[in-house]
Design goal:
Radius of gyration: 17 Å
Structural class: alpha/beta
Number of strands: 9
Strand order of the largest sheet: 5-8-7-6-9
Bound molecules: hypoxanthine
Shape: globular
CATH architecture: 3-Layer(aba) Sandwich
CATH class: Alpha Beta
Distance between the termini: 27 Å
Order of helices and strands: HEEEEHEEHEHEHEH
Oligomer: single chain
């Protein structure tokens, strides 16, 4: 971990990021306009390569509105075959660099019928259906405790701030529970019915591992899902990745506006 931190510090000098942002499917270009230092994951010792469609795979350091940011433009997914440790390694590095708060974004399918594609959902909690936990293995006591509490992974305070900001900007939002699945196949209608009965409102293939590790090492988390489609069986339509990217693109401007406002007040 020291090798990674030292490499990054060489590039960013005495810049100490306080707020981290993970940009999910279709949202990657949020960071494009920002004057910044960019470090491709491929160049960072300890990081693995990322090459999924719609994801760039680089760290962006920028300071809009005087807020020091570290942005992950693209993330590692469990479905790509990466280990839970690889997926969450950047979060531990963020912690070491000084990050106090993390905004995690993703694309998700709506399980709740009263959600609409293009809604934003503030995540109140998650159910980890990935069948693994990123904290498995030897514990690093410098980062967090062996059996960390997960009663409030998603900060109530940040959710309130997000709601107020969305209202101010006239952006439609929902709140709900995010079910995390491994992917890469979308779910079956029977699975979605099960997740719904178990209390989930939306479903996606990311976020839970990063959120668990962030909470474990004392980083406050705000999770925002861009609802890109109805999950399998919720309506008659079939699912495809292009639709997910298409809807994420439609919502992009709202999402950017919301993020910009949140950056100012978080
Ligand atoms: N299921 C899982 N992941 C997703 C979905 C979905 O319906 N939409 C976007 N990511």
């Amino acid at each position: 971990m020291n090798l990674t931190v030292n490499y990054i510090k060489e590039k960013i000098g005495n810049f100490t990021p306080e707020l981290g942002i993970i940009l999910g499917s279709g949202l990657g270009d949020f960071a494009d306009g920002l004057k910044s230092v960019i470090i491709p994951y491929n160049d960072i010792p300890g990081f693995e390569k990322s090459n999924v469609k719609g994801h760039k795979g680089q760290l962006v350091f920028a300071e809009p509105y005087g807020k020091k940011l570290i942005i992950m433009q693209g993330r590692y997914h469990f479905y790509e075959g990466y280990s839970m440790q690889t997926i969450t390694y950047p979060i531990k590095i963020m912690k070491k660099l000084g990050v106090k708060t993390l905004i995690i974004t993703n694309a998700a399918g709506a399980i709740s019928k009263d959600f609409n594609p293009s809604d934003l959902m503030f995540i109140t909690d998650h159910i980890n259906f990935m069948g693994s936990n990123p904290l498995m293995g030897v514990n690093d006591d410098n980062l967090g405790t062996r059996f960390p509490d997960m009663s409030e992974i998603y900060s109530k305070d940040l959710i309130l701030k997000a709601k107020n900001t969305a209202e101010k900007l006239n952006i439609n939002y929902q709140t709900g529970v995010y079910a995390a699945t491994t992917g890469p196949s979308y779910e079956t209608p029977a699975e979605i019915k099960m997740y719904q009965i178990m209390g989930a409102n939306a479903v996606g293939m990311s976020t839970a591992p990063e959120a668990i590790v962030a909470n474990y090492c004392g980083i406050k988390v705000l999770g925002i899902s861009c609802i890109t489609n109805y999950a399998a069986g919720v309506t008659d339509s079939v699912l495809n990745h292009e639709e997910v990217i298409h809807t994420a693109n439609l919502v992009k401007d709202n999402f950017k506006n919301l993020l910009n406002e949140l950056i100012k007040i978080i």
